[in-house]
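Chapter summary example: a protein plus flavin-adenine dinucleotide.
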Amino acid sequence: MGQNAMNSAAESVTNNKVLVVGAGLAGTEAALFLARHGIKVVLAESKKEKPNPAQKIETMAELVCTNSLKSKDPNSGHGLLKHEMKGLGSLVLEVGEMTAVPAGDALAVDRVAFSEKITEVIENNPLIEVINKEVSNPEVLAEQMGCGHIIIASGPLTTTPLEQWMVGTVAKEDFYFYDAIAPVVDADSLDYSKLYYKDRHKPVPEEEGIEADYLNAPMNKEQYETFIAALVEAEKVPAQNFEDYKFFESCLPVDIMAERGVDTARFSCMKPIGLELPNGELPYACVQLRKENLEGSAFNLVGFQTRLKYPEQVRVFRTIPGFEKASFLHLGSVHRNTFLNARKVLNWDFSAKAKPHIYFAGQITGVEGYTESASIGLYVASQILRKIHGHEPILWPKETAIGALVNYVMTSEKPRPSNINFGLLPTVSLTKEQRRDRKNRKRIKKRLASERARAIYDDLLPRVIPEFVGT
Ligand SMILES: Cc1cc2nc3c(=O)[nH]c(=O)nc-3n(C[C@H](O)[C@H](O)[C@H](O)COP(=O)(O)OP(=O)(O)OC[C@H]3O[C@@H](n4cnc5c(N)ncnc54)[C@H](O)[C@@H]3O)c2cc1C
């Protein structure tokens, strides 16, 4: 590129100031990525003026619950995500490693030191201007500050005026305020001798190789009543004061059903009607499992959204027949959560269909977790950088961890925030020999999927960030 073109690229860069709303995990990643690539940023954060009840410190990128940024194992979903984030220059991982505390295979951090260091890096960057202010209309603020692009990264506890602006401007009815998540189980960890395929009220398909859509775990009376008692007794996550639980009757957590009466679940999510066993008998109750992906490598426990604490879920759900050695890819939860129906309102680069200069990043797009949210901050910032330099958005292959997250939220019929797990990546084919190796099959699959992801990502990365930009 000649000097004139360089000058005009630099000029257009300085004319393309970006407003980032929310200095959480996604917002700080996006702001620093852009600044490190020569883009001016205004970063607006509400917590000093109006902290939400989950926030305990004044600094940025607060980890509101656990201090873990999850696994570092390169052959895990989180390990893959970290590899991809590092390639994009992740601030969260850079500071995470600086402030790490011993946690075995996981990257856990001193949360105060982590948040303070992130704040220091952001505040010391001459291209980032921080405004401590609740944003209720990002377009008005962007105009006042001379910003041509906006990233909204206001997280699962977005303040009410901004939520209202989103509903009115980009989301309409495709907007969610709270989230009830059912657990997802790894298909390889189930004991199929105790389970059977059958769709409710439909005959079992006779054609060889064709399965019904649902897998069922039948229970007799004694098993069912013991299970319901265990749900009632299990320890639950207490509601935080900002989470005034209001449940839709059609979407009640299974433990609330259990508390309402021993038979409530049997007439709802555990109802056996139309699910006759292969011998024609009707079980007393049934847990239904629905495929999470086309490959059938993961199953969702239908209607099993729950407030049980994570270890309690593992303990109680492993008493379901066939679940004795179940490995959960995602556990259930119920909490306040602001997120969009991305498939309906966003383009693949996470710009809004209704207003393409407004982008969304972080948990609000429909991913879940600290690192997942941060990774989407990097993804969106890199797409804006491309736009500023006159490049088309780049589609990330779904074999990569970030590509898999993007693909998940953009194709999910019923949006439900997800963390990164191998169930979101296309399955890898195994040789006959590898398939027969039951003991190591799962490990081999993960290793192969990880190798494939790294190879695709290494080829993609130089194309993601335009080559003439960099610091
Ligand atoms: C109670 C709770 C506990 C969680 N625990 C975990 C956990 O243990 N592990 C995990 O991996 N994930 C957890 N999550 C999920 C989630 O991934 C994290 O909340 C993550 O921080 C999301 O990143 P984010 O950048 O999208 O949003 P956040 O990190 O929440 O950042 C959003 C920022 O935007 C600011 N903001 C909001 N509205 C406005 C406004 N109008 N104007 C300006 N600024 C605004 C907020 O103050 C905040 O600083 C939890 C979520 C919640 C709600």
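Key point: The chain has two domains: 3-179+335-464, 184-331.
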